[in-house]
Amino acid sequence: MSTSTQKGGAAATHKKPAASSSEKSKTKSGSRANDSKLQEFFHDEIKDIYWAEKKLVQTLPKLANAATSEELKNAFTQHLKVTGEHVTRLEKVFDILGHKPQAKKCDAMEGITEEGASVIEDTEEGTHTRDVALIMAGQKAEHYEIATYGGLAQVARTLGYDEVASLLEQTLKEEKEADQSLTALAEGSINEEATEE
Q1: Distances (CA, A) of 176 to 86, 170, 182
Q2: Which among 97, 106, 99, 92 is positioned nearest to 58, based on CA atoms?
Q3: Residues whose CB falls within 8 Å of the CB of residue 100, separated by 6 or more in sequence, listed in order
Q4: How many angstroms separate the CA atoms of 192 and 197, rounded?
Q5: Alpha carbon 40 to chain centroid distance?
């Protein structure tokens, strides 16, 4: 037997036995997923994005208050309402997974929100330049959430949590819409007006 064959044979012994058709159907229905490292990772990431959404509920009013443009104030205020719905939706996800809602500190969102606070300090009140900075800060949060929800939805499908995946995909769609609305504000007038200051 060659060395490569032995290695292949050894690797094969570490594979989990294939799930029976009844086990696969249970997983696909979302009633049970494999007790695996992937499932543990998935639950941790749900806790992480739950913390992130709750942090945004605290942060968005500050961004709205700091904005100069009424349109931008309204965009942040409207997204605050949607973000509250995202928190509620994640609580439903916890329920489906059989867990109590639990937040785990999201270092990425903490950094993004701290940066948002710093752009308020670093820009002059009542300027469109501040609005440009606030739009960028908002879009950094949106892009993080888009990446997170997209990845989580895929993992949920892999684990057989189809209902959870649908909820995550609904939030993903709304995060993309928020990002597009911020882009439209920047392109519409705010960036141009900032060049005049």
Answers
A1: 13, 10, 10
A2: 106
A3: 94
A4: 10
A5: 18
Q: Tell me the per-residue pLDDT of 120-170, one tens digit each, with 9 for 90 and over.
A: 999 999 999 999 999 999 999 999 999 999 999 999 999 999 999 999 999
> How many angstroms separate the CA atoms of 124 and 149, rounded?
34
pLDDT digits (tens, 9 = 90+) for 164-189: 999 999 999 999 999 999 999 999 88
Q: Closest Cα partner for 179 from 152, 149, 154?
A: 149
Instruction: Single out the residue of 48, 63, 62, 67 nearest to residue 110, CA to CA.
Output: 48
Q: Which CATH superfamily is domain 35-194 in?
A: Ferritin, core subunit, four-helix bundle (1.20.1260.10)
User: Chain-centre distance of CA 190, in angstroms?
Assistant: 26
